[in-house]
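User: Hi! I'm working on a homework problem where we have to compare a predicted structure to a textbook description. Could you give me the structure for the chain below?
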Amino acid sequence: MGGKNEKGEVMEWSVVNTKTFIEKFYERVKNGQLQGSIFKTTTWEEINKDLFEMIQTNYGVDKLKSKFNRLRQMHRDFSTLLARTRVTWEMESNEVNAPDEVWDELIKKGRHYKNFKKHGFEYDYDILGDIFNSSTTTGKLSHAST
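Assistant: Happy to help. Predicted structure tokens:
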């Protein structure tokens, strides 16, 4: 799922491309270029240029921002999953263990939880935590009060 480029061609986000994007993003976070939860447009353009040089794919700034937001939501959802009672995650094997009733309840809230049941968490959870935890609220504060 990557959307389309300006020529109308489908642009996929492979696991390798996503991991490369996360690495480039993380470099900027470590260098203090993240301001609150946003980057300057020039930083996004630099990341896009770096990715193009490494993977020969020009996603464009809008697609990078969308991917960033999807990764943030995925990290938030996985954190919510791990906070549940009777849920464990074996990082080495990337296996999430939970009773069927917990999975059933979560999948009713969002079908995307099926991916965690089948595949665990595909990316480096700690690095994404470093990226998002300073800019993402979790728990009771992660949902609007309305």
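For your comparison, note the following. The longest strand covers residues 88-90. The first helix runs from residue 15 to 30. Good luck with the assignment!
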